[in-house]
């Protein structure tokens, strides 16, 4: 029988979110119901609420979550009730061309739960990124559950489900940062600072953090940046070149998602280096670059979607490294809040006051 729980719903474009009673069906074949313990507030949740992603209102928000599997449907063998899991928004299919050629992180047929969660009156909810975890419980495809060490704090674990994984993965998976590389990160919010952590973990010897907000630069320093540049007052391309013997960085990670910061990334990179775009642009943005520079400067211009992560490979590994003290994912949790505080958390996020607010249930 469907269960009644609390969930944070965005009812319509730019309307404040509401705490509603929602109905979570019993898991069908291939599905799991997860009791949510913590869920981070991500920009994508705000974009959903603003109508910037789709117009399939009402949305059940929240997607950076960790919790315990409560029940599973027929045929589920990968997780069982009682497992501590991080939810991911890319449950790979195992059968598409990308999966079959051994690159499941590029799967083009990822899936979510088939059944719908609803409001009490039967209105179907669209779960954010197929998750919907600002709720006591949520229904997902079992492949969206990745088991990790249950000793870790849920508030920390959940963050790997989206932004922090995107940033770390942009450095270690997409950028392929290696020992001794020079790295620049443009935009040091949650994603950019995670890229700093990833670069440090991969052994980068020089990590230059760029932002227009000194608070973010201070955080980047504490996360492992060796140099910081406020690009409101200083040309970051010049400084990055100076700090790298006049060459530019081996890997430049753009974690803002704007044409002007992309251009900085492009020119701050050494010949044959790599630019990684992990910031998400909006539909009206365009980029103009001299094609001769694109050719002449060589190297690679890459995009990083979810940090090119493979949850089954990357989540347990990063949680283990955190538990061993080799990375500090806890530093991304600026504050823990209640399920009724999401609207205020959006305001603080918009003002740049937090890396992450995390709803703890
Ligand atoms: N130059 C440098 N930094 C900038 C600039 C700029 N022109 N404009 C904004 N920033 C900085 C902000 O000061 C902030 O620290 O970029 C950072 C963005 O961080 P957040 O707003 O916290 O966003 P985050 O969650 O890190 O996501 C970054 O990735 O997932 C996407 O949609 C997300 O596009 C966004 C990006
Ligand atoms: Zn696939
Ligand atoms: Zn997210």
TrEMBL record:
UniProt keywords, alphabetically: Metal-binding, Oxidoreductase, Zinc
Native organism: Streptomyces albospinus
InterPro entries, sorted: ADH-like_C (IPR013149), ADH-like_N (IPR013154), ADH_Zn_CS (IPR002328), ER (IPR020843), GroES-like_sf (IPR011032), MycoS_dep_FDH (IPR017816), NAD(P)-bd_dom_sf (IPR036291)
Family according to the record: Belongs to the zinc-containing alcohol dehydrogenase family.
Transmembrane feature ranges: none
Protein name, per record: Oxidoreductase
All copies of domain Enoyl reductase (ER), residue ranges: 12-361
Entry annotated with the keyword Metal-binding: yes
Pfam families: ADH_N, ADH_zinc_N
Domain of life: Bacteria
């Amino acid at each position: 029988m469907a269960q009644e729980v609390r969930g944070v719903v965005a009812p319509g474009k730019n309307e404040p979110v509401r705490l509603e009673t929602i109905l979570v069906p019993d898991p069908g074949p291939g599905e799991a119901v997860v009791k949510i313990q913590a869920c981070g507030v991500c920009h994508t949740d705000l974009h959903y609420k603003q109508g910037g992603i789709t117009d399939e209102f009402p949305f059940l928000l929240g997607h950076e979550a960790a919790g315990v599997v409560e029940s599973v449907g027929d045929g589920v063998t990968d997780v069982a009730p009682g497992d501590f899991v991080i939810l991911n928004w890319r449950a790979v299919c195992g059968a598409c061309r990308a999966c079959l050629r051994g690159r499941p992180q590029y799967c083009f047929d990822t899936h979510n739960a088939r059944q719908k969660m609803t409001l009490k009156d039967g209105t179907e909810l669209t779960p954010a990124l197929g998750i919907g975890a600002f709720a006591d419980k949520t229904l997902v495809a079992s492949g969206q559950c990745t088991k990790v060490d249950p000793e870790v704090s849920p508030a920390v674990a959940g963050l790997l489900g989206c932004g922090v994984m995107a940033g770390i993965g942009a450095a270690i998976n997409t950028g392929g940062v290696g020992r001794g590389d020079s790295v620049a990160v443009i935009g040091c919010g949650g994603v950019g600072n995670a890229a700093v952590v990833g670069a440090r973990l991969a052994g980068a010897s020089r990590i230059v953090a760029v932002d227009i907000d000194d608070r973010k630069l201070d955080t980047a320093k504490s996360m492992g940046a060796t140099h910081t540049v406020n690009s409101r007052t200083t040309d970051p391309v010049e400084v990055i070149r100076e700090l790298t013997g006049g060459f530019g960085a081996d890997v430049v990670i753009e974690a803002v998602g704007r044409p002007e910061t992309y251009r900085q990334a492009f020119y701050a990179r050494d010949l044959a280096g790599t630019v990684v775009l992990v910031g998400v642009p909006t539909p009206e943005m365009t980029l103009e670059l001299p094609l001769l520079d694109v050719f002449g400067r060589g190297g690679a211009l890459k995009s990083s979607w979810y940090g090119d992560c493979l949850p089954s490979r990357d989540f347990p590994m990063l949680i283990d490294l955190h538990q061993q003290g080799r990375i500090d994912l806890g530093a991304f949790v600026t504050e823990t809040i209640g399920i009724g505080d999401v609207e205020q958390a959006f305001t603080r996020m918009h003002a740049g006051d937090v890396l992450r607010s995390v709803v703890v249930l």
